[in-house]
Amino acid sequence: MALIAPDKETQIPDIVIGRLPVYLRALSFMHQQGKRTTSSSELGRRLGISSAQIRKDLSHFGEFGKQGTGYHVQHLIKELRLILKLDNIWPVAVIGAGFLGHALASYNGFEERGFQIRWIFDTDPTQIGKVINGITIQSMNELENTIELKHIKIALLAVPAVHAQSVTDRLVDAGVEGILNYAPINLVVPDHVNIGYSDPVVQLQHMTYYINSDDQF
Amino acid sequence: MALIAPDKETQIPDIVIGRLPVYLRALSFMHQQGKRTTSSSELGRRLGISSAQIRKDLSHFGEFGKQGTGYHVQHLIKELRLILKLDNIWPVAVIGAGFLGHALASYNGFEERGFQIRWIFDTDPTQIGKVINGITIQSMNELENTIELKHIKIALLAVPAVHAQSVTDRLVDAGVEGILNYAPINLVVPDHVNIGYSDPVVQLQHMTYYINSDDQF
DNA sequence: TAGATTGTTAATCGATTAACAATC
DNA sequence: TAGATTGTTAATCGATTAACAATC
Question: Which of A61, A98, A136, B156 is the most exposed place for a label (fewest CB within 10 A)?
Fold first, then answer.
């Protein structure tokens, strides 16, 4: 079997899937503010997206609104969580206990949004055994065993660029299917593995194209 | 990354601009490996992009290759740096000196790619005056003055979500034109301001759609 | 009811790809 | 030269938007 996703799911454009978490984040914000209902136009205004696009995106998955009144915020949140498989907490491993790994392991914003950092790995003997936010730093020697034993599917990769590909290969071999890569390098993985990239420099370099540098230097 | 609409004058699609930093990163990697020339097909293979797309993207800016032999790596790097305005080092401010702000200020991978973290701000009196990687944490009271005095154009926003919009308003009023937002919230800014988003949870929630959770829970 | 807003269709807009003459 | 690869065109593919009947 070449692909995991069934036909019906593959028919939905990936770009649509990518917007759902943004909708979810905005809806959760509205919910916190006490808003009970919203409309595609209100949501679109907040996100800088057309109302038509929001309605079209949602229509791939069902009918979640009511003519005349719009969407019930809490209900739409629940539906989006189901679509994105967020009805359980995904356990996550952090690879690399440098400054960034520390920051990720210390961040408490994951759990309410569907994830929990449960493991952190490093090669540095002086780091191994230390505890960050209740998580004990493990040796990279235990990587494969732990992944297989705990059925870890998702990892945050915060190792130096030179090691990113080799660690990725180990993660994939052990069964990881989703990697958020913080190293500034492109990873090569099998088709069934999902990679997300987080390289701040790439984003900054995108911006500088649009920023006039005349009075900067 | 959500950016302002490209100038009608430039006519170059924003999605093309967004790929240039990725090309640049891959080319720099090749250069480090000692590669002197490459081709659109080799580059495409590495990045999972078609060779036609790479040639088309580059053709918006000029003719950088040679039939039969491809592209001179070092030359193409130089051209891309010019296009993206990376021929000088952009000074950058970090807002927020929590774990993430610390990690950003401590990261030494910015400078060789066109950026230098030069300022870091926080409200916490116990943090102000401390030094991270040679940078003294300043009071948020000095934010506007410093931005205006130093003509700061780019900021990394690493403050709690509840403060992200109000701090953004202050940054924009003071003259900042590019913000990389690490807070899990959508920002509203004027058209001329470029926003990049870095919310790991949004990326993880995108992945989980494709990951089978059957044996996970 | 009258106004508001959905879900959906068709048209428009934009991006990607295949193909190939040019040429190193 | 012969093989390789570019830059570009036209065709294809896909995504966004405008518009509106349905209906709350």
Answer: A136
> Which residues from chain A sit within 8 angstroms of residue B214, using beta carbons?
none
C-alpha A126, offset from chain centre: 30
Q: What is the pTM of this model?
A: 0.94
A54 φ, ψ (degrees, to nearest 5): -65, -45
Q: Within 10 A of A57 (CB to CB), how many other CB atoms are there? A: 20
List, for residues B141-162, the tens digit of each pLDDT value. Answer: 999 999 999 999 999 999 999 9
Contacts of B191 in chain A (CB under 8 A): none
DSSP A85: T
Q: Is B45 on the interface with A (CB under 8 A)?
A: no
* Residue B188, CB, strand C, below 7 Å: no
Chain A to chain B, count of Cβ pairs less than 8 Å apart? 227
**Alpha-carbon distances, residue A50 vs A39, A41, A147, B63, B208 (angstroms):** 12, 7, 42, 37, 26
Q: Which nucleotides of C are covered by protein (CB under 7 A)?
A: 2-9, 14-19, 22-24
Enumerate domains of chain B plus CATH numbers: 14-83 (1.10.10.10), 90-203 (3.40.50.720)
